[in-house]
Design goal:
- The structure holds two protein chains of two kinds.
- By secondary structure, chain A is an all-alpha fold.
- Chain A is built from ten helices and no strands.
- In chain A, α3 packs across α6.
- Chain B has a domain of 165 residues: P-loop containing nucleotide triphosphate hydrolases (Rossmann fold, 3-Layer(aba) Sandwich).
- Helices cover 36% and strands 22% of the residues of chain B.
- In chain B, the strands form two sheets. Chain B has a six-stranded mixed beta sheet with strand order 6-7-8-3-9-10, sandwiched between helices.
- Chain B is globular and about 50 Å long.
- In chain B, 47% of the residues are buried.
- The chains are: A mainly alpha, B alpha/beta.
- At the A-B interface, α7 and α8 of A face β6 and α4 of B.
């Protein structure tokens, strides 16, 4: 058929040389950047210690800047005499925080979507509520978190107490980008696509789910990618006023108290917290690849 | 003419905010099975007229009867399909799913939809491309998908707003031929807006020439070229006579040299090859 020539070729197989090479390059780049950062850390430390550098009240030494290999190494040592390895403690703490963050993320995403959809459909609601929604995000979360704990905790069943309040705090940091981007995405529909829907006499409900929501998905996922690490941060911060010991927030507080004697442990905790945030982000990224099907140059 | 598919009486459309009268007292009947083109200078209201027929724009006054009903009822009953200059396909759906969209909205079940989509892919000669995504197709192929989608529920009327305007000349001529084939196969009535005189004469049974804004019908030219029309039809002396006649009517209706429309170049094609 004459027109076949103008169609794109079928998707290349998963293991073809081009893809393998591109993946290998990505991995090498990642390791190279990691190596550079490692060198910068150790280099600055060595340099600073050699010349007795002081920047204000900061001076690089084993307490302020432990060796990176010692930070990683301390994970595989017990943090208490005859106690479990630090990495086991942090693993459990991370799972606990992950649960709070995941529930908060889901809650924030659903509320954000519903709110964004409502605001997209009514200019009146938008003008009325948007300023307050924006203002809510300008209040520092450390100020809001205790209030949330005090208000939410009594209303939770015993099984959800405390960590439930933390999930709400995580949701608080999550819903805003989702609201804004949902609003934007739902209203960025091509007017001719709307004319087409009108020509099919489609109801508003059908137009929402068959046209507006799919159009909005790339925007929504962009917001979810921002919200994912934010929910982890919210969960960690939220654990402090909620007096939770089992999560990463509690671990950070704990190791902060013992910083003078074992600085590596706090750094190690931060490392695990960062990895948790990255993991959440990657999960959203994978979900996006699966759900959003667009021309390759439009995703991202 | 047996009962017209489209009947316009005294249709006027003014846009108050812009202080513009797009259409002035349009009277037009389109019979079943006809292929009627609307041609005129930029801003003469031909696209507006098409949208009035489709109940996408409400006329300021006058009556519109489509398939024996009001334009609104005809739209609600799915009596027409529409194709725009831009294919307006959904990127997140495959070609098959795009074609099947109106059928989904009508509540057809999966098997029936799949069968109809296969039929349509054959009709527009895109068999095997059902699983592709719109961005993997060329402009011409995308328009064929848009045409298939418009015909999916076998409407009595097909409204087309410069569907080939964004394509190159050769693709356009080829798609003109395909459109005629599809028109004959489906038996629908077509109302076609274009900027190109050659295209209007090649495709239509009648060409409606519109005047400069406010748009009125300046003339209607009967195209008595034999069917089926082929690439050879474009070489016949009668074809050039008709192109000249349409051009003359356009000039009479007020074709401003300054109001150059995208298809302006084509208005000279007939002259060069004559």
């Amino acid at each position: 058929m004459a027109h076949a020539a103008s169609a794109a070729p079928a998707q290349p197989p998963l293991l073809d040389p081009k893809r393998v090479r591109s993946a290998a390059v990505s991995v090498c780049l990642f390791l190279a950047v990691l190596a550079v950062l490692w060198a910068l850390w150790e280099g600055f430390k060595a340099f600073g210690e050699a010349i007795d550098l002081r920047l204000g009240r900061f001076e690089p030494n084993d307490r302020t800047m432990p060796h990176l290999h010692e930070i990683v190494g301390t994970l595989f040592e017990p943090s208490r005499r005859n106690g479990p390895l630090l990495i086991d403690i942090l693993w459990d703490a991370a799972l606990f925080t992950a649960k709070e963050a995941a529930v908060g993320f889901a809650l924030g995403a659903v509320v954000g979507f519903a709110l964004g959809a409502a605001l997209a459909h009514s200019g009146l609601l938008q003008r009325g509520f948007l300023p307050y929604i924006i203002a809510s995000q300008t209040i520092p979360i450390l100020a809001v978190a205790p209030m949330v704990v005090v208000w939410v905790n009594p209303r939770l069943p015993p099984s959800l107490k405390d960590w439930g309040a933390v999930a709400v705090i995580a949701a608080y940091l999550t819903f805003f980008p989702v609201t804004i981007n949902t609003m934007r995405g739902l209203t960025s529909v091509d007017p001719r696509a709307l004319e087409l829907m009108r020509s099919y006499a489609a109801t508003n409900w059908k137009v929402l789910w068959k046209l507006r929501v799919p159009t909005a998905l790339p925007y929504i996922f962009a917001a979810l990618k921002i919200a994912a690490p934010a929910s982890v941060v919210g969960a960690i911060i939220g654990e402090l006023p909620a007096s939770i010991q089992n999560g990463l927030g509690g671990a950070i507080l704990n190791f902060n108290q013992y910083y003078v004697t074992a600085p590596e442990r706090l750094w190690a905790t931060n490392l695990i917290a960062a990895l948790l945030g990255i993991t959440f982000f990657l999960l959203v990224l994978v979900a996006e690849r699966l759900v959003v099907r667009r021309a390759p140059e439009h995703v991202g | 003419m047996s009962k017209p598919v489209v009947s316009l009486s005294g249709v006027t459309k003014s846009f108050e905010a812009a202080g513009v009268t797009a259409l002035q007292s349009i009277d037009l009947d389109v019979g079943p099975g006809e292929f009627v083109s609307l041609i005129g200078p930029s801003g003469c209201g031909k696209s507006t007229l098409l949208r009035v027929v489709g109940d996408l724009v409400e006329p300021t006054s006058g009556t519109v009867v489509v398939n024996g009903k009001s334009a609104r009822q005809a739209r609600r009953d799915g009596d027409y399909g529409i194709v725009f200059q831009d294919a307006v396909l959904y990127d997140w759906r495959t070609v098959s799913k795009n074609i099947g969209l109106p059928l989904e909205l009508l509540g057809w079940d999966k098997t029936r939809r799949a069968e109809r989509v296969e039929e349509l892919l054959r009709l527009v000669e895109l068999q095997g491309f059902g699983g592709h995504h719109p961005w993997q197709l060329s402009g011409g192929m995308q328009q064929r998908v848009a045409i298939a989608r418009a015909l999916s529920f076998s409407p009595a009327l097909l409204l087309m707003d410069e569907p080939f305007g964004a394509l190159d000349e050769m693709t356009r001529e080829r798609l003109n031929g395909e459109l005629l084939r599809i028109w004959e196969a489906s038996g629908s009535t077509v109302l076609f807006v274009t900027h190109s005189i050659a295209e209007a004469v090649f495709l239509s049974t009648r060409v409606v020439v519109m005047s400069r804004r406010p748009g009125r019908i300046a003339a209607i030219v009967d195209v008595d070229l034999p069917q089926p029309r082929t690439a050879d039809t474009r070489e016949e002396p009668r074809f050039f006579e008709l192109v000249t006649e349409v051009r003359d009517r356009l000039r009479e209706g007020g074709l401003d040299e300054d109001s150059t429309a995208p298809g302006e170049g084509e208005l000279l094609v007939g002259e060069e090859t004559a």
